[in-house]
Amino acid sequence: MWYVPIEVAVTLYGDKRVSDDRPTVQVTAVTWPGDEPEPTGRPGRSRRGRLLLAGGLAAVVLAGVGGAGAYAYAGDVPRGTTVLGAELGGRSRDEAARELRAELERRAATLNAPLTVLVGEQKAEIRPADVGLAIDVDATVAAAAEADAPPVSRLLGSRTVDPVVTVDAERLDAALRGVMGEQGREMTMPAIIFTGTTPKPVYPKPALSVDREHSAQVVTKGWLAGGQVTVPLVEQAPATTAEEVDRLVEELARPAVAKPVTLTTDKGTVTIPPAAIARGLRFSADEAGKLTPRVDVKRLRAALGDKLAAIESPAKDATMTISGGKPKMVPGRAGQQLDSAALGRDLLAVLPKADGRTVSGQLKPAEPELTEAKLGALGIKERVSTFTTRFPGGLSSPRSQNIVQAAKDVDGTVVKPGETFSLNGHTGERGYDQGYKDAPVIVNGKLVPGVGGGVSQFTTTLFNATYYAGLEDVEHKPHSFYFSRYPAVIESTIFWPDLDFKFRNNTPHGVLIDTSYTSSTITVSIWSTKIYDSVKTEYGPRRNITKPKTVHLEPGPTCIAAVGSDGFSQDAFRVIKKDGKVVKREKFSWTYDAEPRFICGPEPS
């Protein structure tokens, strides 16, 4: 008869009387059949009984192991897990989040204290809140729960999980650059520029600054550790070296302007001279400092001037004119234009060559940007505002001619919904070649002769027309002196290129600018679809009135006498009504200087 003497000791250290809270299973003195002879004189047990005994004890062992496993896997966060010293193990995610927030509250004074940073040789303090330094509780708990531990570690071990720290990298970078101050330097980008037809290299130099990504890592780590954080200054070299710049000069820039290039088309041939090539050939560096050559066809066109007119026919937009008191459509037309992308690519390919400098230009249809259908859909159907100012001297005076020239330049302009109109951008520089003449302008507080004088009167007329149409004022500046021919405050001067007048079409309809003139008046009307009942101006009283002083000037052709005018401050309110209610009330304010009484002659003794 076989018997199995078994001694099993099962000890579960899991109740509250034991200080170590980790359950363990201990099994000792197991003897299997065949290891020992059956002792004599001892009552035998049946084999079945012995097996039942062994099975029962095994069940006890397995039950203990199962209880330990249940203990180890209780909660969402593995047992023994801590974050910043807070015990999160064995808890649900919500419980762990509450415990971590409580720990952060206990550490609030430390976490919110200014952080000392050393950038290069400059030291400063940064408030964590100013750069978005914070601990993401939910993300930290999720990381603690998802970073699973093996069963044995759950029973016997412990682990620390780093908190998930957030930071606003852009704000931190700005703060660190402020601390850096003049220690850093911007990257000198490589370039090749032309002086006439001579290429001049600009050699790259590395930047010295803080690295945004690395700085964020250093600061977030140092914030939790406490103490001073050292942020290093890092050199960043441009992608293109000085040697590569020299290579581009020798292999492309110099050969490019050594000879002309012949452009052939079905409609004729154009010679592109070296000076035009130099204007169109650009070497552009990206943010990393990589220098890339390209042909700027727009600049090339400008350099060629009228030479392309023989082979191209530009498209013309559809326009409107006012006839018989109603807007009338003027059809546009399609044109033919060189394929700019192909021309730039093909020209760049032949520029390094000494011979075979010929490119074939492809003409393709050029449709007008504003077709009759598109213009008709803009809803330009009625006059919504008009404004007139008077000028002295008749049409023979240079000042009057400048006003009329500006009116002609702008007449018929269509401003689409959402677009911003710029008077300087529309007319370009107003010089002698554009038909403008010398007339008085205000420079440094006095009237002097200047090309384009008088255009400010047209600007004021246009500004008021758009103002009473309810359109959005983007940029305008009243005169420094008050002129009685203009409405106070709601008037505007202009000067190329520093002072401009801009308005935005903030309506869902198109806007047509219509201009007309007589021998003594200039009128601007705005045509569109009327959306407001009325637009009116309410004035506040004049205040802070100042009197002019008398100034004697040296007589001569540049001296312009003036009778002078009072200075004052005043407010004007644009009141816009729709459906019988005030929907907008805008305040415009200005302070006029007292215009001196200028006398061309010496002061009396």
From TrEMBL:
The keyword Membrane applies. Residues 242-359 form the YoaR-like putative peptidoglycan binding domain. The chain crosses the membrane at residues 51-74. It holds the Pfam family PG_binding_4. Keywords: Membrane, Transmembrane, Transmembrane helix. It comes from Micromonospora palomenae. The lineage of its organism: Bacteria, Bacillati, Actinomycetota, Actinomycetes, Micromonosporales. InterPro entries: Glycopeptide_resist_protein, Vancomycin_resist_VanW, YoaR-like_PG-bd. This is Vancomycin resistance protein YoaR. It comes from the Bacteria.
